[in-house]
Write a structure and sequence with these properties.
The protein is α+β, with helices and mostly antiparallel strands and 217 residues long. It folds into two domains: 31 residues; 145 residues, TM1622-like (Protein Transport Mog1p, Chain A, 3-Layer(aba) Sandwich). The protein has five helices and nine strands. The chain has a seven-stranded antiparallel β-sheet. Strands 1-9 form a two-stranded antiparallel ribbon. The longest helix is centred in the first third of the chain and has 32 residues. It starts with 11 loop residues before the first helix and ends in a 9-residue tail after the last helix.
Length: 217
């Protein structure tokens, strides 16, 4: 009688090793596909909000009292009361103007929006020839390092002028600020109550609008 040869022996450890290797390889590939997405999603910066704190597409241009108070925020120490002015009550060249006061400080604050970024500085430079307005380096304004405004000046307190004032205008957005006081001490107090935009904030605003420095911003 002829005996059949025994079937070849199977090695369970070999099968397990191969299957385990395939599973490990598949898991590695899957992990390689997942991990970068997790890293990207964890490290991706949030979408920046527009200047008004809203996430709109596109961002809206500065306008109204909200825009004026963002350009020159007078609520740093004490909340200010602001009213819109008629054209004949301020520079007629201004598109909008706002008059703000503090309940505990005898200082008048004016914020004006002009049709073009060059209009406000041009007006104040004209004032300098007639009323002693002097331009100064922007970094002399409190917290003036990296300041957004491109024009800063004022009228000194003299025997002929008992109401000193200062004015600031931005280079790249069409807003100007004026502070009028009855004393230098009151003027200095008012300066500490107003926050201005930095150059970085102004440029970030322009980028959000995908705009160039024109009167349309």
């Amino acid at each position: 009688m002829t005996l059949e040869p025994p079937p070849p022996r199977r090695h369970p450890w070999l099968i397990v090793g191969v299957v385990g290797g395939l599973l490990l390889l598949a898991g590695t590939v899957a992990l390689a596909l997942v991990v970068p997405r997790l890293v990207v999603s964890a490290t991706a910066p949030p979408e920046p909000a527009c200047w008004n704190g809203l996430e709109t597409d596109p961002c809206q241009p500065l306008k109204g009292l909200t825009g004026a108070m963002w350009a020159f925020d007078p609520n740093q120490v004490v909340a200010a009361n602001c009213d819109r002015l008629r054209k004949e009550d301020y520079f007629v060249e201004a598109e909008d103007a706002w008059h703000c006061t503090w309940p505990d400080l005898a200082v008048d604050m004016f914020v004006a929006r002009f049709p073009d970024v060059a209009d406000g500085p041009a007006i104040w430079r004209d004032v300098s020839y007639n009323n002693g307005f002097r331009e100064m380096a922007p970094d002399t304004w409190p917290r003036g390092e990296a300041l957004g405004p491109g024009l800063f000046g004022g009228t000194p307190l003299t025997k002929d002028l008992d109401a000193p004032l200062i004015a600031l205008c931005y280079d790249d957005i069409p807003y100007c600020l004026e502070l009028d006081a009855m004393s230098n001490r009151a003027l200095e107090t008012a300066e500490d109550r107003v926050a201005t935009l930095t150059s970085h904030e102004v440029q970030a605003y322009l980028r959000q609008l995908a705009a160039t420095p024109t009167g349309d911003v």
